[in-house]
Specification:
This protein has 193 residues and is mainly α. Helices cover 44% and strands 8% of the residues. The protein contains six helices and five strands, in the order αββαβαααββα. The longest helix has 32 residues.
Amino acid sequence: MKKHIIPAVKLTLLSILLLAVLYPMLVWGIAQISDGSGKGQTIEDKEKKYYLNVGQSFTQDKYFWSRPSAVDYNASGSGGSNKGPSNKEYLNEVQSRIDTFMLHNPGIKKSEIPVDMITASASGLDPDFSVQAARVQVKRIAKIRNLNEASLEKLINDNVEKPFLGIFGPEKINVLKLNMALDQLSNNSYSIR
């Protein structure tokens, strides 16, 4: 019995040291040298702080709309809907998003709507969307803000984030940064809601 207990206790103590002390210290150390020192990337505007790495809700026609969220952009309850592509309730929800998008963006064909504008991400908190998701909204925003479409296209191009190391992941745009830049372009006061 002693032959088994002593190695088990040693293995337990080693596991505690590695997994409850050294590994958390390593992760904490890496977080301290990252952007935001492990507290997330933030941006301030008019004395209000916004997190760049957490999705925000933009639904006003004068802004680029955000990607839908299954958790209503609640960072404490991250998660997807977990409904499959054959779930009738899910399909109705997606169809409702398509109908709403087309209603607010006349002239856009159903086939032109990027999938990230009608489906939520796995976390429900995706702060980014595709370049195509921004471009499909240009006509609506240009008309409402009385802006030139070419200036909106330039704004989109200026806010594209390239893939990590040029190969990992797609090009993307942070919706919050894009909408803040849009307000600066329009010379309007910044207001998320």
